[in-house]
From TrEMBL:
Protein's name in the database: Carbohydrate kinase, FGGY-like protein
UniProt keywords, alphabetically: Carbohydrate metabolism, Kinase, Transferase, Xylose metabolism
GO BP field: D-xylose metabolic process
Family the entry assigns: Belongs to the FGGY kinase family.
Lineage of origin: Bacteria, Bacillati, Actinomycetota, Actinomycetes, Micrococcales
Carbohydrate kinase FGGY N-terminal domain location: 27-253
Annotated source species: Cellulomonas gilvus (strain ATCC 13127 / NRRL B-14078)
Amino acid sequence: MTENETPEGVEESKAATRGHIAAGRTTLGIELGSTRIKACLIDPEGTPVAGGSHEWENQFVDRVWTYSLEAVWTGLQDAYAALVADVEASYGVRPRTFAAIGVSAMMHGYLAFDEHDELLVPFRTWRNTSTGQASAELSELFGHNIPLRWSIAHLYQAILDGEAHVPAIASVTTLAGYVHRRLTGRHVLGVGDASGMFPIDTATHDYDTRMLAAFDALVGDRGPGRPLVDLLPQVLVAGQEAGRLTAEGAALLDPSGTLAADVPLCPPEGDAGTGMVATNSVAPRTANISVGTSIFAMVVLEKPLAQVHHELDLVTTPSGDLVAMVHCNNGASELAAWADLFGQFAAALGSPAGADAVFGALLREALAGDADGGGLLAYNYLSGEPITGLTEGRPLFVRTPDSRLTLANFMRTQVYGAFGTLSLGMRILAGEGVEVDAMYAHGGLFRTAGVAQRLLAAAVDAPVAVGSAAGEGGAWGIAVLASYLGAAHEQDLGTYLSTRIFARAQVDVVEPDPHDVQGYAAYLDRYVAGLAVERAAADAL
């Protein structure tokens, strides 16, 4: 209960929410992130009213980062069941239907199916960096940067390597596209997620036809034996209905049989698109930064970039507008590993604390560190990092004998390390003359008020805004996109977000501190110089 709420007001609000749930006026969003599958239920105004989650982790099998499809459905069912339990505990009613459903997931990667919808090879996630030859050849052919993790790079690399499954390919999609197809029977994808599979023509909001033809001519009879466009999902934009929940899909999501079929679904989107929605960053000169297992910045452009940069992806908003994306494979996972270690230490001392409490204490300590991190150096590279040219990663903490090793400096350095690669990509955008009014940040790292936000402002040398829904993340974002189905006929997405979803949102903006900016710049110089150590570690270990 907030300061201005009365017990009577709270009960009235709960009763209204109970009515929305019982009448099927709430909207469900599900996002499959790298470490957690989250389900979020929102009311007609976009306010989260219930949630559920399931922890999962990728596996490194035969030198491939992957998740099994069994883990996908176990996790989805668990997250949905947790949400239903939350609804029942909070409102005394069990949801049987929804106004709409949306599915989002990690972008990119490679899911290839035969004509019977059987998976041909294990899911290859965005984390895999084994597509160097394909990426380079396609980037040159198209005159358009094709990052290592894009679906088309994975497909072409499989063709180059003569993989046995290639002739049997009947469709290729992303994780969100796969889940959506199982729920609805439709092979479709939101334009934002599709733009991480193959380049999009922003004039048509569809795959670039010149590049499709160039690819088909390049592979000839080495490929699956049908035009590429026949393999890829149909592209849809925000606000278009993307199918309805089938009886089979309802049973997959809710094996109890309570969930009814025929619920409309919005186009499935990637986590980049839901991040833009969750931070109201879909208009030109807006930008957002998402921090999770990976970290990426999305900057909505006013005009195309002058040059092709291998460090930058060109993708789109869920409405199809051009976006420059700085995507770093490694985000907050190494920081979380250190927090877990310190939590174990606290428990060994007889003072156990919850993960959030440990994380919060360590992050707050970082503010007391030297502006440059005291001469310490941290790399969060659990996997390869294309921006810095590394195909494999080794987490490292390095210091010189004259460095100042304190807990505050150690933690500041770990946070700086999470932002290091991102800063290098943002420098390139600044060199292109790209300007933003503010960077909106979201992700669990920002639940501890004022810490990561302040240090991120130093890293990007720009104001960083964090909204009240920053911790809700992509599950809330895709729920909002699903709710937009009912308003798309009268408002564009940007107007809908500004006037309906974020009209009363509380946003905290932190300006970059000049002392922090100077200290971070010194740290980043040391970070760039030390990349030689990271490369040597990957070679030696």
